[in-house]
Input
Amino acid sequence: MPEERIWFDTDPGIDDAVALVLAASEAGPAVEGFSSVAGNVGEAQAAANVLRVTRAIEEALPGALGSPRLARGADRPLLRPARHATHVHGEDGLGGRLPPLPVDLLPKRDVLPAYRALVELAPPGERFEGTLVALGPLTNVALACLCDRDWPRRVRRLVVMGGSIEAGGNATAAAEFNFFADPEAARIVLEAGFPQLDLVPIDAGRRLAFTRSQWSRLEGIATPVARLVRELTGFWRDRVEAAGMVVYDAIAWMAVHHADLFDWRAYHVTVDTAGGAADGASVADRTHRPRPSNCRVAVDARAEPFWEHFFALLKCGGGAGTASPDS
Ligand code: BDR
Ligand code: CA
Output
């Protein structure tokens, strides 16, 4: 497995949590830290959820993560009131599926603000030779861009879950949740000059719904890490049975090490911030004379190999054996 530094900016979120579990299983100690951001839930809950998930990972995969840091981030978008998605992820963001965290275990907000922690990954004169994976509204990342205009150019790779090119929105008819929650931040980040910005929008998940068939595959794997993913996604069980759910942030994680599972297209993408019906929508230039691209977009994915990789990660994690021929 490639040894590279990984930092997550995240708002857990059930699919964020699944992404962190897969990352621990695959990249382990390379995951050097997390920053929390208001999104699916408020920032304090998001920070607590990072620790709830990392504790659960430590139980399922002892020693898999090294000693990742947690930097607390923005508690509201740059210019807008906060919007949450507890109707999707439950009041606590994790469907009530993991034990709560004693409040005194949370680091104080001002010890190392997230935007500073991000800038310090690549301080002036140094490069971050790793991947920053952004799974929530882009407030912290935008603040880092504003704080040091040259910082984006020192970050080797940024992978963002957000936006929708052709698939329509999930927060509104036009906008995907992470971009809708902080459209100004998303726009700043897209236009900041990151040398490699990989955008994983809703489109990447259109063949990757987690359905009854994935659920029964998951039930057939007896490793502690598979049990943890079962626990986390259990809150969605009824919806999985009915129509399938897309685990967007886990898809974005898979794009980090398995870019070959996706079809990529280079586009210039920006974000509508005008406050109308398309507020927060991503706008990709698909004209005959497009503006120079500012990102590479995962427009589609190959479902079969995707699920093979996904379940392979859960099978080898934890070493507790298997329960069926599938595993
Ligand atoms: C994104 O919105 C959130 O609810 C998920 O965690 C994911 O990051 C999908 O639109
Ligand atoms: Ca998220």
